[in-house]
Amino acid sequence: MTDNEFDLLDELYFVQPFSYLKETLGWEDQRLLVTLKALHSKGYIKCLFAPDDEVFGTVDFEAKGKDLFYLATKKGLMEHNAL
């Protein structure tokens, strides 16, 4: 797990919108989207349309990533806490 992935997972113990992550971490959009995509591909986070409406299937981070909410999965939390 990269430092960026670790720092981002640290913010995803609760459902958070993209805007919160950007403001809290102070990252530019591209860095945040690339890291979100990497975490999602590893199964460490899930994406949501709304706080209680999970996205199933492929996520187009470049087109829709800024409009989504994010939450760490059990797998992601276990990996985060193991470090």
Low-confidence blocks of residues = none
Specify the helix fraction band. Answer: 40-55%
> Spatial order of the strands in the main sheet?
1-4-2-3
Biggest β-sheet strands, sense, barrel: 4 strands, antiparallel
Kindly name the structural category.
alpha+beta
* Mean pLDDT reading: 96
Backbone shape: globular
What share of residues are in beta strands?
15-25%
Tell me the span between the first and last alpha carbons.
9 Å
Give the radius of gyration: 11 Å
Helical element count?
5
**Series of secondary-structure elements, N-terminal to C-terminal:** HEHHEEHEH
* Record field, number of beta strands: 4
Question: How does the SSE layout of this entry go?
Answer:
Layout lengths: L2 H7 L6 E2 H8 L3 H13 L3 E6 L2 E2 L6 H4 L4 E4 L1 H9 L1
Name its key features.
alpha+beta, 83 residues, globular
Give an overview in words.
It is a single chain. With 83 residues, the chain is of the alpha+beta class. It has helices at 3-9, 18-25, 29-41, 61-64, 74-82; strands at residues 16-17, 45-50, 53-54, 69-72. Strands 1-4-2-3 form a 4-stranded antiparallel sheet. A hairpin with a 2-residue loop joins strand 2 and strand 3. It is globular and about 30 Å long. The mean pLDDT is 96.
Summarize this, please?
49% of the residues lie in helices and 17% in strands. With 83 residues, it is α+β, with helices and mostly antiparallel strands.
